[in-house]
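Quick start: what a row looks like.
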Amino acid sequence: MNIVKLILFLFAIILIYSFTLRKSNSNLTKELLGEKLFNEKLLSSDRSISCASCHKPEFAFSDTLDFSLGVGGKKTTRNVPTAMNMSARTLFFFDGRAASLEEQALGPIQNPDEMNLNIDSAINRLNANKSYRADFIKLYNSIANRQNLGDAIASFERTLETSNSEYDLFIKNKKNGFSSSALRGKSIFIGKGKCFDCHSGTDFTNDEFRNIGLYNGSNMADKGRFEITKNEKDIGLFKVPGLRNIEITAPYMHNGIFKTLEEVVTYYNNPNEIVSNSINRDSVVTKLNLTKEEQIDLVAFLKSLTDRRFKKTK
């Protein structure tokens, strides 16, 4: 009799567990699975880091280091850009080597300087995990593979859009918090500062590649877009980043050379004072002759592009 009761008890536990598991998965979406994977350390070779280790949510999904640290403390070769406001982008990474968010999502996993894990190995790990296996089958009617792994992470990344900055409120005729300095900076951004030549559109990028003068021809220097196209005209070209939340994504440029927005503006105001031996510098990068006050106003405008969610946590 005791054995029968024990069997019935165990059967009840199994039913409860099964019901709870189904209930916990009932609200599962590709975006939620992607968020879980974005934070999953088993996708790195030594299970020590995740995408979120370098793309920190509190810093608009960027990092605070010049070069982030991959597995074993190995430094990345370029500064980590923000993962936010990527839905409208057409090419990804500073050299544009990925043509979709799905392709981009898989890049850091297999990059030897970052997570250093072969994609096939990553997929095997996911399928060996009962929870992930069930999640992929539920959402994709298939176990994990290269395509749905990239799709899930990309689906999450597409949720990382921001449009609630002081600038956005100003555009909507709600001038709360938009200072007179930022308003003057807006005019400089569009006019004298020539920023709008490259940083146009909703996310303040034209998605083109430019040489802003940081390439000096050194054998050790990063050649940017050229590494992908092998076209000599692309030597020193890097993708123009968007400027939303730029206030909190320092350091700046592909090599993290500038630590503050003030340093960035100082450089553009007189590039030759920072890099005197530039090669193939874009013609748009010329001495601007901005006054100290105009530089302050331009920085004020750039800071107005920070989403209010980050302003609250600063």
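That is the whole record. The mean pLDDT is 91. Residues 2-25 form the longest helix (24 residues).
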